[in-house]
Structure formats: structure tokens, C-alpha cells
Predict the 3D structure of the following.
Amino acid sequence: MCDHCGCTPVHGETVSIPVKGMHCDHCSEAVIKALNDMGNVHHVSVDLAAGQVSFALGHGADLATIKEAINDLGFEA
């Protein structure tokens, strides 16, 4: 569920979420790898300057689980 308006993202939709604590290429590579390893998150990209992570939701992807994976790396999604 979206933190901003409460909507539920749908399969194939591209989502951007703010992530705090990313400062370098190593940070972005860690987030990209973690989300790609989930298998149901695609086209992951990180904008360090904006503090944003963007991705396409695959079948069965859950936004809460994605945020948890990012938080487990030490960032704040």
C-alpha cells in the first residue's frame, strides 16, 4: 500500500519510493542487488541525488516486503 495516498500498486506498475541513507555507488548497488534478488521486482534504478529508488512490480510483489529488504540493508525506506 502506498504511504502517500493508500492506493495499492499493481503488477507492472513502476513505483518510486524515497530511501534515506544512500550516499555512494556501493549503496545503490546494494539496493539494486537486493531488490533484483527478490525475483518479482524488475528494472530497479537508484537516484542518489534525489534519494529515490524506482522499480517495476512483478507478479506477487509486495511494497512492504520491498521496503523491509531495503531497511535490512541499513537504509530507511
Observations:
- The chain has a mean pLDDT of 88.
- The longest strand covers residues 41-47.
